[in-house]
Amino acid sequence: MTTKQMCNLFREADGYFNDENVDTEKFNKNTKIKGYCRNGGCKKNEERINALALYIHMEFKNLIRKKSEYNKYDECLLMWLSDKLFKMHLEIKGKKGVKGYMDGTTLNQAYKNYLEKHKVRFDYWDLLGIIPSLREANLKYMTEFYKLINHICKIITDYKDNGAGSKNLSKYSIDCRFQYRTLYNNISECKSYLHLLNRLKGLYDDFRSHAIKNTDSSNNLANKLQKLTLEDGKELNAAKGFISYNFSNSKCKFLHKKKPTIHKASKSNLKPAPPSPQEPQRKTQQLSSTTPSEEPPGKLELPSSSQESHKPGKNDQNEPKDSGKGGGGP
């Protein structure tokens, strides 16, 4: 399986959504996806979301070369699901349209609240049991990771469709790096979140290396496809392999308690990354996204400890464990 194939599946699935709602008419026309419903049909929106998630999961499994191989894209599927659950969460909480809204809801809590009772033919939640600890990640953080996936996919799709001569590649890669830096500025204190961030960096790096290697140097692709570096120019190593995530340790929980500094120019609650010396200052609202209704992130805001819906665990381990399996690929 390739990252391009993952991008195609996510783009296909996203095409069924209007915010948190699945287009019923379009959904019912796809007999393969509808076939994952129980009793021949999905009557509720939640069932249709579960059917789409199961469809993506099964397509992932069909595309990997070895059935026993750890599927490095399962984490990305949970990010995709988080994006849909967060939109549902905003609607149900009456916070849709509220700029920068965030709370302490985890992915696992959102799934249990909104999707668990709406079963389809197979329970993909159990099938994803290989990474149960990732379910305890904050829902909003996971949504922002999916936004980075969208940036990566936008670059890959443009390159595949228009080649190395595309005039958009440089802009798209700068936007991607902006989101990468923004996430780093918010989550770097938590090693499990940082591992996730650099897992996605690995997908981008593998594509970038493959594209540069297979493109004539006259196209200057190495400069068009910017490296994902930090603000000071430092480049972190891409993360590869399966780990046991831990979001209950003190450093990760601290991210859920500290009060953010809101950037005046930002309409969201993520702290934007400043431009590198090579980049001119850009207004944050110019950051492109494959989700037009969502604006560029500023500083991630989570509730104080008294407001958290997810209680801290007793475990205070700081290092996620890496099995060394898996790896990136274009």
TrEMBL record:
Top-level taxon in the UniProt lineage: Eukaryota
Polar residues biased stretches: 283-293
Region described as Disordered: spans on this chain: 261-330
Organism: Plasmodium chabaudi chabaudi
Protein name as annotated: Plasmodium variant antigen protein Cir/Yir/Bir, putative
InterPro entries documented for this protein: Yir_bir_cir (IPR006477)
Compositional bias of kind Basic and acidic residues: 308-324
